[in-house]
Amino acid sequence: MAPPSDTEQRLVEAARRLWHMRSYGDVGVNEICEAADVRKGSFYHYFPGKHDLAIAVIDDHWREAYETVVLPTRADGGTPLEQLDQLVVRIGLEIRRMTEELGVVPGCPFGNLAVELSTIDPQIRDRLARLFADQQAVLKGLLDDAVAAGELAPETDTAEVAGAMNAYIEGVLALAKTANEPGLAQELLPLCRRLASPPTAVEITPA
Questions:
Q1: What is the DSSP letter of 143?
Q2: CA dist 17 → 32, 70, 88, 162, 201 (Å)
Q3: By the 8 A CB rule, do 111 and 174 touch?
């Protein structure tokens, strides 16, 4: 696949920023073109419609998240569970960075679009579903490595735990956005690790 042109990339970056700061429905093509300093006719040369731009924005968000959060975490070394800890710390730091850049806690760009568009745009819903599966696969890979390294019990259902962690992370980011408090994400995300530990049995003593 050929790399995007400068004009195409400017449109993607403008839409990313505006949608993440506000919402997909609140920002139209005209405003995106103005922010990108691109003529409206050029917009339709690259994207048949706003929906197609949304798919490109999702892909661009995931590429950047993978390069700035996942790859550095895996390159840091440490045990698999230490890498898991670093992964969620990096997510929290990224939320704080974006808050400083945008002036508001933006939440997860994928979660935002899922809430807004999943019931009305099947193609975007399907793309987001694949992306959430990719996120879960990253977590499962770390958990599988932790089992292999003896950090987790062999019977750990890594797919189930990864799914719970993925849901927890998305929920924390939604709560941080609602509270407009990036510190909430940094406080709660590290607790994600507890989902990998088996629950402690509670012994009930008869009265």
A1: H
A2: 10, 21, 22, 29, 46
A3: yes
Retrieve residue 44's tokens: 């339709």
**CATH no. for 57-194:** 1.10.357.10
Q: Buried b vs exposed e over 141-158: b needs ≥16 C-beta within 10 Å? A: bbbbbbbeeebbeeebeb
User: 25-31: long-range contacts at Cβ-Cβ below 8 A with a sequence spacing of 24 or more?
Assistant: 25/116
SS3 189: helix
Q: Is residue 172 predicted with pLDDT exceeding 80?
A: yes
The whole-model pTM stands at: 0.89
Residue 51: CB atoms within 10 Å: 13
| Residue 163 burial by Cβ neighbours in a 10 Å radius (0-12, 13-18, 19+) | middle
DSSP class of residue 24?
T
